[in-house]
Specification:
By secondary structure, this protein is mainly α. The protein folds into two domains: 278 residues, no CATH class; 89 residues, Alpha-Beta Plaits (2-Layer Sandwich), CATH 3.30.70. The protein contains 20 helices and four strands. The longest helix has 27 residues. It is globular. The N and C termini lie far apart (49 Å).
C-alpha cells in the first residue's frame, strides 16, 4: 500500500508539473522567436521522463532482471489492458529501446522485427507469453503506428523522441562554442531522405529471411531453425534476431546513459563475449557504438542528421505525408500564400532542411522531412503566414514579431538565423 501511495504521489506531481510548466513558458517567455523552442524543449524533457517512467516508479531489484541492474526492465503501457494479446506494450513511433531499463512504451521497429523472427509462431518470448500469431501481432503494431501517425504525424519526432532530444542537446553544445552548422545541398538532402525507406526495406527482408522456417517451413539460412528451451536459440540468429537493433544508435545511448546513472550494472553489461564485433556483450555491439559516434559527429555538423535517415521517421512519414494518407492526416503545416514575402527565414531555420514551406505557394506544406518542430512557424515574421493545425484547428501560428516598417531588422534576421539555429 505504501508503495502504491508513493507511485500515486509521483504521478500526481508529474501530471501537475506539465501544465504548470507549459503555462509559465507561454506566459513569461518574452522573446517571441524563442517561445515555441523553449516550450518544445520542456515537452521533450517531460517526454523523456515519461518514456523511462519505470526509473522513477519502480519496483526495483526485480529478481528476474536483478543481475542487470536495480531498475525494472519494463513498466509497459498497453500490456495490461491488452493482456496476453500484446505483452510487449504500446507501440509509439519514437526510439524507446527494448534493451534499456525502465522503458514505458515500445519502439515499433523492435516489435516488427521480433514478431517476424523469432516470435512469429512461438508462444514464449523474453519473459513473456504470446497468445497471438505473428501476423496478429504485426497487425496490432502497424495499426497503432498508422493511427498515431495519422493523428500527430512526425510531431513524435520533433517533440517526443528521446533521440531527437539528444540531437537537440548536441545543437545547443555547438551554439555554446559558437560553431556554425553546415548545410547539405538540396539534392543531397533529398537523397538522404530516401535512406530511411531503404533501411526499413533491408531490415524487413533480413527479418523474413531469418524467420523463413517459422513462416513457411523453409530454412533459407542454415542455423535459423528455432530451438532450445525457449524456442528462440537458433544458432547465429540467437544474437541477430532484430538486425536493425545491431546498428541502431539509440540502443548504446540508452545502455550507456543508464549505466552511468547506476540503473544498469556496467560490470554485467560489459562482459566481453562473442568475438571482436561484440564490445560489451549482448547489449551493445561495436557496430552500435560506431554508428552512435558517427551520428553524434554528423549531428554536431548538420542539425538533426539522424532524423534525415531515420527508418522510424520514414515509417511515420509514410503514414502521414504520403499520397495515400495525406488527405486524412490530422496534423498539418499550412501556409497562406498572400502573406508570404519569400524572405526565406523558414527555410533557413528548419533543422532538417525541409523546403516545401518555402517553395510551395500555399496550402498544406507538410512533407516527409518536416518533423513538425514549428521552428519555421516561430521564426516567420508575418502574422498567420504559417500555421500548425490539428484536425483543422490552429494550435500555433506565426506572429509579426518585427515592426512592419522595420526592414533593417528583417534583413538582419534573415542573415543571422543560420547562426542562431
Amino acid at each position: 500500500m505504501m508503495w502504491e501511495n508513493s507511485n500515486t504521489l509521483v504521478l500526481s506531481v508529474f501530471t501537475l508539473i506539465v501544465p504548470v510548466g507549459i503555462f509559465f513558458i507561454l506566459r513569461w517567455t518574452k522573446d517571441k522567436t524563442r517561445n515555441v523552442s523553449t516550450l518544445r524543449f520542456f515537452i521533450q524533457i517531460v517526454a523523456l521522463v515519461a518514456v523511462f517512467m519505470g526509473l522513477v516508479l519502480g519496483p526495483f531489484d526485480d529478481p528476474i532482471t536483478q543481475p542487470l541492474g536495480p531498475a525494472p526492465r519494463d513498466r509497459l503501457i498497453g500490456a495490461e489492458f491488452l493482456g496476453n494479446q500484446f505483452p510487449d506494450g504500446l507501440s509509439v513511433p519514437i526510439f524507446a529501446c527494448y534493451y534499456a531499463s525502465g522503458r514505458t512504451v515500445t519502439c515499433p521497429i523492435w516489435q516488427i522485427q521480433a514478431y517476424i523472427f523469432p516470435f512469429w509462431s512461438h508462444a514464449i518470448g523474453y519473459f513473456v507469453f504470446y497468445s497471438t500469431s505473428g501476423l496478429e501481432k504485426l497487425a496490432i503494431v502497424f495499426g497503432l503506428v498508422i493511427t498515431m501517425s495519422i493523428v500527430l504525424g512526425k510531431f513524435f519526432c520533433g517533440w517526443l523522441c528521446p533521440f531527437g532530444l539528444y540531437q537537440d542537446l548536441i545543437t545547443r553544445i555547438r551554439k555554446v562554442f559558437r560553431i556554425r552548422h553546415l548545410s547539405l545541398s538540396e539534392n543531397t538532402n533529398a537523397i538522404l531522405g530516401q535512406f530511411g525507406y531503404i533501411i526499413i526495406a533491408v531490415f524487413l527482408i533480413l527479418s523474413f529471411i531469418f524467420g523463413s522456417y517459422s513462416i513457411s517451413g523453409i530454412q533459407l539460412i542454415p542455423g535459423t531453425q528455432p530451438g532450445g528451451p525457449l524456442g528462440t536459440e537458433a544458432g547465429i540468429v540467437g544474437y541477430i534476431n532484430e538486425p536493425f537493433c545491431l546498428v541502431c544508435p539509440m540502443r548504446p545511448l540508452s545502455v550507456l546513459v543508464l549505466s552511468a546513472l547506476g540503473y544498469m550494472r556496467f560490470s554485467y553489461v560489459s562482459q566481453i563475449t562473442y568475438g571482436p564485433f561484440w564490445t560489451i556483450g549482448y547489449y551493445v555491439t561495436s557496430i552500435n557504438l560506431a554508428v552512435l559516434i558517427a551520428i553524434t559527429v554528423l549531428s554536431l555538423a548538420y542539425r538533426r542528421f539522424w532524423c534525415r535517415i531515420c527508418p522510424l521517421g520514414a515509417l511515420t512519414a509514410l503514414f502521414s505525408t504520403s499520397t495515400l494518407f495525406e488527405q486524412i492526416a490530422l496534423t498539418r503545416l499550412h501556409k497562406t500564400e498572400q502573406k508570404c514575402t519569400k524572405c526565406g527565414i523558414c527555410k533557413r531555420v528548419c533543422p532538417t532542411q525541409a523546403i516545401q514551406m518555402y517553395e510551395k505557394k500555399g496550402g498544406d506544406v507538410t512533407e516527409s522531412r518536416c518533423i513538425l518542430c514549428a521552428r519555421c512557424v516561430e521564426m516567420c515574421p508575418y502574422e498567420n503566414a504559417l500555421t500548425l493545425k490539428v484536425a483543422g484547428k490552429t494550435v500555433m501560428k506565426s506572429r509579426n514579431w518585427l515592426q512592419k516598417t522595420d526592414k533593417t531588422k528583417l534583413a538582419h534576421a534573415a542573415r543571422t538565423t543560420d547562426a542562431c539555429n
